[in-house]
Design brief:
The chain is α/β, with parallel strands linked by helices. It has helices at 19-30, 48-51, 76-81, 86-89, 95-112, 198-209, 246-260, 262-267, 273-278, 282-300, 305-316, 373-381, 420-423, 429-443, and strands at residues 12-15, 35-39, 117-121, 124-130, 133-138, 143-146, 148-151, 172-173, 190-194, 215-220, 320-333, 336-343, 350-354, 356-359, 400-402, 408-414. It has 3 domains: 7-58 and 94-157 and 365-448, FAD/NAD(P)-binding domain; 162-227 and 303-359, FAD/NAD(P)-binding domain (3-Layer(bba) Sandwich); 246-300, no CATH class. It is built from 14 helices and 16 strands. The protein has a 7-stranded mixed β-sheet. A 6-stranded mixed β-sheet has the order 3-2-1-7-16-15, with helices on one face. It has a 3-stranded antiparallel β-sheet with strand order 4-5-6. Helix 1 links the parallel strand 1 (12-15) and strand 2. Helix 1 packs parallel to helix 5 (95-112) and helix 1 packs parallel to helix 14 (429-443). This is FAD/NAD(P)-binding protein.
């Protein structure tokens, strides 16, 4: 008979091997833990969607100086890249280079602990709980036992817009990275991108690099586009956490922007953003999401200066326009589409012909519509629930999932964008690397040493 493993010998199962899951696995292995990393998309192993791009025009939105995978070694990525000068540290390198960095880190970690680490290809679809141990089921019937499970699912694919659902493939691309989105560009004159955020910027730059010389229109509710980083890194003096909240906080930030500039006003909030979010009640958070989120996003999540310059050049040449309004209807007319849209602040509709429509609305923002089988299974069991805003799952600050009754559970955790409802700012590398570092220390009992306990 096979020997039954005790719970202490069981691994920590990490579901999802993008940035969050990969970095958590690396940190757990450094703490001597057993780890199994489960990923359904082999091409995204150790990269995820963000860093899995193969397009060199897709740049990091954070300077190289702040892209280390480890909060205790902030120069790690710079050394890996071979950067040393201040000018190089300020560079925004291609995201594909960062994907290679992550994969190399994971390969090194696996090689250093071959008896404690494994990678399982497959989709996690269900979990069963028995005496503190968890049995994770994969599509196809395989199963694995673990002592704890961490959901590192990243961002969810966007839900197709109903207004565009009847357009034929080839005319409408619901996924901007689907093969064919940049094919046959010589024969078309006008491309409409639905959305004007970072996804749209990536799509615009890819179309431009692919040789497209026609017109592009980026349509979104407010017509906002991401702002640019400054050429050199921020030199922000640390400040105390603002005491104001709600509308008073908005006024205070605007006043700071008038005296320091908007970049500095936003940057000095960065160490405090998660605390500010947590001390606002649910109603205040909802008001922020409804009214201020789009403006926060374009100022907080910025473009590399070279990318912003190219976007500005395309606008200046008349080849690119950002417009604000609501898409009302869409119908095919031969090889083209006829879009009807209502400009923001107007009651009348306008017609917008398009040779191709590319949806760039970003990830699904409602976790209840994500359709992930494991997450749906945990919710059905009452072991997980959506957060108050349905941005992700309901977790306490440590990352423990709350069950249907709101009680945190040992052995079930989440990291990365899935915890946005608790932390809000948890999509950028500097935030996630600290989160997974802390969770790895907790799961590896390292939080009891180093002056923090024994």
């Amino acid at each position: 008979m096979a020997k039954t493993r005790n719970k202490a010998e069981l691994p920590v199962a990490i579901v999802g091997a993008g940035f969050s899951g990969t970095l958590l696995a690396i940190n757990l292995l450094r703490h001597g833990e057993n780890v199994v990393l489960v990923e359904r998309e082999e091409a995204q192993l150790a990269k995820g969607l963000a860093f899995g791009t193969r397009q060199p025009e897709h740049l990091l939105n954070v300077r190289a100086a702040n892209m280390s995978a480890f909060p205790d070694d902030l120069g790690h990525f710079l050394r890996w890249m071979g950067f040393s000068s201040d000018d190089q540290a300020n560079r925004f390198v291609p995201r594909l280079a960062y994907g290679r960095y992550l994969r190399e880190l994971l390969i090194d970690a696996l090689a250093a602990a071959p008896d404690r680490a494994q990678v399982r290809a497959g989709e996690a679809v269900a979990a069963r709980f028995d005496g503190g141990a968890i049995t994770l089921s994969l599509a196809g019937g395989a199963a694995l036992e673990c002592r704890a499970m961490v959901l590192a699912l990243g961002n969810f694919a966007p839900t197709a817009l109903p207004v565009l659902a009847d357009l034929p493939p080839g005319l409408h691309f619901a996924d901007p990275w689907r093969p064919g989105a940049t094919d046959g560009l010589d024969a078309i004159e006008h491309i409409v991108l639905v959305g004007s955020g970072l996804t749209a910027i990536d799509a615009i730059l890819s179309l431009d690099r692919a040789g497209y010389r026609g017109r592009m229109t980026a349509l979104s509710r407010r017509g906002l586009k991401p702002r640019s980083h400054a050429e050199s890194g921020p030199a922000v003096r640390p400040v105390a956490e603002p005491e104001a909240s709600g509308a008073a906080l908005v006024r205070a930030v605007r006043q700071r922007a008038e005296s320091l500039g908007w970049r500095a006003a936003i940057d000095e909030l960065r160490p405090h953003t998660q605390h500010i979010w947590r001390r606002h009640d649910e109603a205040s958070q909802r008001r922020f999401l409804r009214h201020l989120r789009p403006y926060w996003d374009v100022h907080r999540h910025r473009l590399a200066p070279t990318a912003a310059s190219r976007i500005a050049a395309l606008e200046g040449s008349g080849r690119l326009a950002f417009v604000a309004g609501k898409l009302v209807s869409a119908e095919a007319e031969g090889t083209r589409a006829r879009l009807r849209w209502r400009p923001r602040g107007s009651a009348s509709e306008q017609v917008l012909p398009a040779d191709r429509i590319i949806s760039c609305i970003g990830p699904e923002g409602d976790v209840t519509r994500a359709g992930h089988p494991l997450l749906d299974d945990l919710i059905a069991q009452g072991r997980a629930r959506a957060d108050a805003h349905r941005l992700g799952v309901d977790v306490e600050q440590s990352g423990r999932l709350r069950n249907a009754a709101g009680e945190p559970q040992d052995g079930l955790y989440a990291v990365g964008p899935l915890t946005k409802g608790e932390a809000w700012e948890i999509v950028a590398v500097p935030d996630i690397r600290r989160q997974v570092w802390d969770l790895a220390r907790y799961l590896g009992s390292a939080h009891w040493v180093g002056g923090e306990g024994l």
